[in-house]
Amino acid sequence: MTGERLLPVNGVELCVQAFGDPSDPAVLLIAGSNSSMTSWPDEFCTRLTGRYVIRYDHRDTGRSVTYPPGEPGYGFPELVGDAVGVLDALDVASAHVVGLSMGGGIAQVVAVDHPDRVASLTLMSTSPAAPGADGLPPLSPEAMEYFTTLTQPDWSDRAAVVEHFVGVRRWFTVGEFDEEAVRAGIEHDYDRTSSFRSASNHDLLHGGPEWEGRLESVTAPTLVLHGDRDPLFSLPHAEALVDLIPNATLVVLPGVGHELPRSSWDVVVPAILDHSKV
């Protein structure tokens, strides 16, 4: 594992970290909305043996560039460009791209617009369109109620902010919830960023792609991993991806929500390793 590095990417500084030998096949991990590189745990990265694993902080997360809360100086296309720019900064010609949630949306656009940079594509807990679009199921009533009644913490109070996000993570988790580990992870993430609140800028992003007709042009071998109890994107979202992307394969993760729980790693890690074979 190499240490975290601030690298110039598309005119800004992004924090990037790599695991493994640069001569091995590269795997680029793209985190979800409001999430830094630490959403891909160290142990998860090191279990991808024989791969050069790259993770990075999105804009407004971790140690990467931050913008004032409520004023993102970028849109979704810039996040797509950042993924490619990280590969450029590390002199990686192409990678096996793995994206979770919003990171899965970014990964899809990278595969469409930069097919030469994507050796394979793995999409986790994501969707080909916004909930409710193109006939896909919208958010469940429970999810709608949760998001519409969720109150903001006192952002000046570290303990209150941490408690708030522990609750958010608990809501997205299906099955056993390791509160101690989750709390420690959020505290670590809070302490390594200059403006933890700025991550909410991801909720304001605009300028995304027009999805219709684009995914049919994906040429990268595609694997879709999706929990059968995802409260944000129900299973039909994953099935739609498989229908739209040529020759895509779906692996359903039983008892998994909108998350990457340790309990799923014994399936997820071998699946990614097998999918990223040279």
Considering the chains and any ligands shown, give keywords for the structure.
8 helices; alpha/beta; globular; Rossmann fold; 278 residues
- End-to-end separation in angstroms reads 22 Å
Helix percentage: 25-40%
Q: Number of helical runs? A: 8
User: How are helices and strands ordered from N to C?
Assistant: EEEHEHEHEHHHEHEH
Portion in strands: 15-25%
Number of strands: 8
Instruction: Based on Cα principal axes, name the global outline.
Output: globular
CA radius of gyration is 18 Å
Low-confidence stretches: none
Question: What do these coordinates show?
Answer:
It contains 8 helices and 8 strands. The mean pLDDT is 93. The protein is of the alpha/beta class. The chain has helices spanning 42-47, 76-89, 102-113, 141-149, 158-172, 179-191, 235-244, 265-275, and strands spanning 5-9, 12-19, 26-30, 52-56, 95-100, 118-124, 222-227, 249-253.
Briefly summarize what is shown.
The chain is of the alpha/beta class and 278 residues long.
SSE topology sketch:
Elements lengths: L4 E5 L2 E8 L6 E5 L11 H6 L4 E5 L19 H14 L5 E6 L1 H12 L4 E7 L16 H9 L8 H15 L6 H13 L30 E6 L7 H10 L4 E5 L11 H11 L3
Parallel strand pairs: 3-4, 3-5, 5-6, 6-7, 7-8
Antiparallel strand pairs: 1-2, 2-4
Helix pairs in contact: 2-3, 5-6
